[in-house]
Amino acid sequence: MQKTFVISDHHFGHKQIIDFESRPFHDVDEMTTKMIERWNAVVGKEDKVFHLGDFSFLNREKTRDIVQQLYGSKFLIMGNHDRGRTKKWWLDVGFDEVSEYPLVYGGFYFLSHEPMYMNKNMPYVNIHGHIHGQKYEGNHYINVSVELWDYTPVSFEEIKRMTIPNEEQ
């Protein structure tokens, strides 16, 4: 059965992010290897992954090499560091679909790179990245930046458990 995952802010090739976000890697090569391993440990070849932006700082060839190693079909919602390249560039390196704008998934979830304003009375959840190790208060926001999820994509089943109230309570 196909599963769906979300993740954000890998920053492949970005040496300074290791210090900026206190990532537990010695260098970008170790970071790349470990993040690919963690992705492939949970994502199957038939699964779908929404990457919510800031994927790679590397050139076309090195980015394509990473994308080809990652399991599943990959949908990129472009982040602030991705927007310097065209949708075509991202498709050419191996993403199956690319969006410059947030999307609604499952009629209930807003998928975006940056957090979106969510009124507390709205029945929606914003799944986002961009703010790395920070979290917004409340149950309207789920930050899927890699730092908060041990550099591993999060299944939508896990997101649902976090966001849909248990009707028996």
Automatic annotation (TrEMBL):
It holds the Pfam family Metallophos. InterPro entries: Calcineurin-like_PHP, Metallo-depent_PP-like. SUPFAM superfamilies: Metallo-dependent phosphatases. It comes from the Bacteria. GO terms for molecular function: hydrolase activity. This is Phosphoesterase. Signal peptide: none annotated. It comes from Brevibacillus fluminis. Gene3D superfamilies: 3.60.21.10.
